[in-house]
Write a structure and sequence with these properties.
Elements lengths: L41 H4 L6 H12 L8 H7 L4 H13 L3 E7 L5 E7 L7 H7 L67 H12 L1 H4 L7 H16 L4 H9 L9 H11 L8 H4 L11 E3 L6 E3 L7 H13 L1
Antiparallel strand pairs: 1-2, 3-4
Length: about 325
């Protein structure tokens, strides 16, 4: 019990001069990566103007292969941050030049967002020149004494220094230019036309179109639009469609916002045109020439039964046959 413990040092050892391990702060234990790594500059990981979420998101984007989708909803499914936080981080990266987003139209008419990621957005002429190492200027040589016999020497040619290659910025992908005519491959269907546009049909169709703004304020039409769409509404009236039915079909479930009321009504008048009502004769069942057997009263039990001739019913006939058999 009285033996002193001499295994523990009396105090912590003092740092040895030149020791790479610091006495406080972070200690790095680095191993060389052989595969599956991404080179990221300190200008991003130690950026003073970016948030921690933006720095981490930029590192994740730079580690993805070309063609990977990095939409806000896809990133929100991958990370616990909300869509609002991810959208704010993307805006930070775009403001500092690490990201560039543009909307382009594909040949099939779809509009997509093209994203370009820059691992070093400050690689321009000015920063590249500042990043180059400074070359030491050579000291002027001591002039040699001029020899007594003057000699004609050829002028000394100094070697032209090779131009330093300047880092070039990554070129932006060329935008896909789609002509306006390629957005619609087929022309719109023609507006329905009635068989006979009478003045009554013209007047009723014009009044119905002009009255639509009372039921839907978005459907404000000009006089030219009303005259253009009136034959289509007249076709509905010619097919025995009720004005309330037409008004409901044209004003129900309107998109918000409605940019082109005339084009929208033209589409609905054409796409929702009902067929003409069939005739009442077509709805009635066909008549069959079937003879109706009259009712007769049985001569024995006075029960009613159907037969062309008077006599006995079936039960009475069966009863009489049983009596004859028993006799």
């Amino acid at each position: 019990m009285d033996t002193p413990q001499i295994t523990a040092p009396p105090c912590a050892p003092s740092p040895v001069p030149g020791d790479p391990t610091p006495s406080s702060g972070v200690v790095h234990v680095n191993f060389r990566h052989a595969a599956g790594f991404t080179v990221i500059g300190n200008h991003l990981t130690q950026h003073r103007g970016l948030s921690l979420a933006a720095i981490g998101l930029a590192a994740h984007i730079q580690s993805l292969p070309a063609g990977a989708r990095i939409g806000i909803k896809r990133l929100a499914e991958r990370f616990p941050e909300s869509e609002t936080r991810i959208a704010a981080a993307l805006r930070e990266l775009e403001a500092h030049g690490y990201l560039h987003r543009s909307r382009e139209r594909l040949p099939d008419g779809r509009i997509v967002t093209r994203t370009v990621s820059y691992n070093q957005p400050s690689a321009n002429a000015s920063t590249a020149a500042a990043a180059q190492p400074r070359t030491r200027r050579s000291k002027p040589a001591t002039p040699l004494p001029t020899p007594q016999p003057p000699r004609e020497t050829a002028p000394e040619r100094r070697p032209t220094p090779a131009p330093t290659p300047q880092p070039q910025a990554l070129p932006l992908p060329a935008p896909v230019l789609v002509p306006a005519a390629a957005a619609r491959t087929t022309p719109p269907p023609p507006l329905p036309q009635p068989q006979e546009l009478t003045p009554e049909l013209q007047r009723a169709a014009t009044a119905l179109l002009a009255d639509l703004r009372r039921h839907a304020p978005q459907l404000v039409l000009s006089e030219h639009d009303i005259r253009t769409l009136a034959p289509g509404v007249a076709t509905w009236l010619e097919h025995d469609a009720h004005p309330d039915t037409i008004r409901h079909a044209l004003t129900a479930d309107l998109p918000n916002p409605l940019k082109h009321p005339a084009k929208f009504l033209r589409h609905r008048i054409t796409a929702r045109l009902p067929p003409p009502l069939p005739n009442t004769e077509e709805l009635s069942p066909p008549h069959r020439n079937t003879a109706v057997v009259p009712l007769q009263n049985c001569d024995r039990c006075n029960r009613a039964f159907r037969s062309r001739h008077p006599g006995h019913c079936r039960d009475c006939r069966d009863c009489r046959s049983d009596l004859h058999t028993a006799a």
